Amino acid sequence: MTDHPTLADMAATLEQSPDYRVLRRLVPRPEFSPSDGEAAKTALLLDVETTGLDAARDEIIELGMVKFSYLPDGRIIRVIDTFSCFNQPSITIPAEIVALTGITDEMVRGHGLEKERVNQFASDAVVIIAHNAAFDRKFMERYAPLFQHKAWACSVSEIEWRSHGFEGSRLSYLLMKAGLFHEAHRAVDDCLALLEILALRLPHLDRTVLSVLLERARRKTIRIWAEHSPFELKDELKRRGYRWSDGADGRPRSWYIDVDETGQAAEIEYLQRTVYQCEVEVRIQTLTAFDRFSVRT
Questions:
Q1: N or C: which terminus of the chain has fewer CB atoms within 10 Å of its end residue's CB?
Q2: Phi-psi category of residue 147: left, alpha or beta, with phi > 0 → left and psi -120 to 50 → alpha
């Protein structure tokens, strides 16, 4: 009697052909690399699900965190602990959020974010990593002030994914490129998926994604404001990478861009030559991982 091939056998056969790609369900793993006695640091992955996109008005409905250890060269050692909790908002969860996340009013009823538990879990992390830190940090600073004083890194904006052979930065896409898939839009699940992405080695650099991210996050960046720029130049500024601040959060009502320190002089020269057509004093801010993405900036 001939044994029937297993699913694993069939997947291995398909992978040998250039006409097929196989995706495997992500099975979270607790161990990644041996420490070999080297001193390790602790980092925290964080994801929130919310009632909407406005950090000043909308509310967290789920918080997920994954604490892990890593070596100075960016190799991940192991998962230390995970944290997950629901939070009942003051409003009914919008239908589109229920459809997106699967989180219902019944699931969050009676639950709340206990600030002391959250602070205790995150206290020993030297860096907080989120896949869109500009979103998650603003919500967390509102709920737990500890996060105002932590260094943050963003795995969306602080990795040049296209230069590393990826066509986008969505978590589901990055996971697919790694040959995996998972159930998205649940906080801890998304954190564990991101951990797998951070553990990937970029072939042309022979470094982990985490190593590249942390190197980028440690740099200072300069925020340059194109205040009072002519309205007719808005499309020009947008093409160059400027973003719009409507002033609602206390920042200037203006276009702005973030550049590395080495690009500061060239960007100011561009504004003076192209936008203002004269030498004017340009508002700048110096940002680090401790205030980048914060509502305070």
A1: N
A2: alpha
